[in-house]
Amino acid sequence: MRLGLGSYAFRWNIGIGDQVPQTPMTAFDVLDAAERLGLEVVQYADNLPLHKLSEADLDRLRAAAEAKGITLELGTQSFDAEDVRRYLTIGRRIGSKLLRVALDAGDARMPVPELAKALRPLLDEARNADIRIAIENHFNYPSPRMVELLETVDDDALGVCLDVANSICAGEWPEETVRLLAPFTINLHLKDYLITPDRHGVGFYIHGVPLGEGRAPIPWLLDQLAHCPADMSVILEHWLPLDGDAEAARDQEGPWLEKTVAAAKGFVAGR
C-alpha cells in the first residue's frame, strides 16, 4: 500500500465555501507537503480543482511530482459526462492512473440502470486513457446501491474509492460499508472519528480526530483489503472541525496531519 495525501487534508488552508484564507494553498504547496511528510501519492479532489490550472501549469505539476518521486491522482464531483471527460484529459496530461468521483445528490437520485448506461461510454474513454474510475462512497449513496451499480456495469475500469467513515451519514457503520465494498475497492480514503455525547444529553455528534485516536477499526479494515494490489494508494484525510475559529483550524491541519501520517505508517508497516 502506498500512502498518499488527499487535498481535503488541507480543507481550511485551501479554503472551502465561505472559509477562504488570504493566501490559499496551491496544488504545488500540497505536493511539497507530501514530500516533507514522506508520502508517495497526492490525490487532488474537487476542493482543489485542477481544471483551473493552465496546461503549462499542469505540465509543471507533473514534472515537479516526477522529480519528487510522487504519483499524482485526481478527483471530481458527479458523473457529469463533460466534467468526467475533462478530468480524463487532465489525468492523461499529469500521468494519473486513477480518477476519483464522488456521486452528488443528483446522481444519488438517478435509477441504477440509467446511471449504469451513462457510465459505460465514459469507462470506454477511461480505458483508452489508461485510467480507472473510482466511485467514492459519499454521504448520500448507500453501499448496497453502490454494489448494485458496480455489478450492473461489470467493468474492470470501474471500482470503489472506499472511505472508512463517509457512509455513517447513509445509516451504515464502517464495518457494514467495508464488508460490502471491499471486493470492489481500488483506492482507500483513511480518516478517524469519535462519537461524543452532548454534554446536556441531547444526542451526540460525530467529529474527526487524527488517525489512531478514534474508533475507526483501522487494522481490521486493512485486513479486509489484503486482496488489493500492493501498490494501491491509501489517501490520508481528516475531519478537523472548524469550531468557529478558521485561523485555529488552519493552524491545526499541519499537526493533525503529522500525527495521522505517523499512525498510518505504523498501520501499513509490513502489509
Question: Please, could you describe this protein's structure?
Answer:
Strand 3 (71-77), helix 4 and strand 4 form a beta-alpha-beta unit. The protein has an eight-stranded parallel beta barrel with strand order 1-2-3-4-5-6-7-10, surrounded by five helices. It is globular, with a radius of gyration of 18 Å. The protein has one domain: Divalent-metal-dependent TIM barrel enzymes (TIM Barrel, Alpha-Beta Barrel). It has ten helices and ten strands. It is of the alpha/beta class.
How are the secondary structure elements laid out?
Blueprint: E1 2-6, H1 11-14, H2 27-36, E2 41-44, H3 55-68, E3 71-77, H4 81-94, E4 98-102, H5 105-109, H6 112-128, E5 132-136, H7 143-153, E6 158-163, H8 174-181, E7 185-190, E8 192-197, E9 204-209, H9 218-224, E10 233-236, H10 246-268
Parallel strand pairs: 1-2, 1-10, 2-3, 3-4, 4-5, 5-6, 6-7, 7-10
Antiparallel strand pairs: 8-9
Helix pairs in contact: 2-3, 4-6, 6-7
